[in-house]
Write a structure and sequence with these properties.
2 copies of one chain form a homodimer.
Chain A (H helix, E strand, L loop, with lengths): L16 E10 L2 E7 L6 E2 L2 E3 L6 H13 L4 E9 L10 E9 L10 E7 L11 H16 L11
Parallel strand pairs in A: 1-6
Antiparallel strand pairs in A: 1-2, 1-4, 2-3, 2-7, 5-6
Chain lengths: 154, 154
């Protein structure tokens, strides 16, 4: 980057930017938001993690800001870090699963917010189609006799 | 931060810095390194993720750099992001589990590298004692009849 004052080049250490996304389950459906900003399309609620905030806190905050929902039973699913998953810059998303009740209300970056089931998913931004394919595959695997995933206490 | 040329203040967006740590299994034991730099103590092999590198690539790279081991069967375990887990700055570690054979050799940031089993763990830096407690608890849970954790394809 360049200094905004003197315009000379500055080296800043920068790794991938950590983000969170949340699969919010409401009565067997999941919550998606329609993005107001590019890349357009539908997406899981989520966003950048703030410095000094745990990823769990960030997931609850983003869910509330973007959908108005208070999420419970939050658990980690998987972290997606392929450098090409967001064309704008290298972001890595830690994806959470949680439950909510009531009706979501669009806030912040969201144009609309709606509930979808697996058979009626819209066109998704980023790698969110892959994330949801993994999510539904893991769900089916559990329903067919495998135990719940083992999660560390948190 | 301040510009190194004109010394005027600059605002740089900064989230937590993503890191990876790897639990490398060798014949029922795990590999730990003794840190040459503060915070001193023993730790899982690991380090900062580079921009443009997936977390999986970072885990394999750090394992090789710090222990000389080629890790196989890499899978994600959990991401630890509590802001107090590293006193120097807010880092968030995505922890992986993998397997290796042969004998580890200390490299890079490592003073010594040794194999440990659960009953003989040394004093650990960061939150690595908690990470390993979670790891051994998950392992026992699997041994007592629960199925393997469900992991998305990667």
């Amino acid at each position: 980057m360049r200094c905004p004052h003197c315009h000379r080049p500055i080296v800043v250490y920068k790794g991938p930017s950590p983000t969170v996304d949340i699969i919010i389950e409401i009565e067997g459906k999941i919550v998606l938001i329609e993005r107001k900003n590019p890349p357009y399309g539908w997406a899981l609620p989520g966003g950048f993690v703030d410095y000094g905030e745990s990823y769990e806190q960030a997931a609850l905050r983003e869910a509330l800001e973007e959908t108005g929902l208070e999420v419970s039973d939050l658990r980690q699913f998987h972290t997606y870090s392929d450098p090409s998953r967001d064309a704008r810059q290298h972001t890595a998303s830690t994806v959470f699963i949680g439950k909510a009740g009531g009706r979501p209300v669009a806030g912040d970056d969201a144009g609309r917010v709606e509930l979808f089931d697996e058979g009626s998913l819209p066109s998704l931004a980023f790698d969110h189609a892959r994330i949801l394919a993994d999510y539904y595959a893991a769900k089916k695997s559990r329903q067919h006799g495998a135990a719940d995933p083992i999660h560390p206490s948190s």
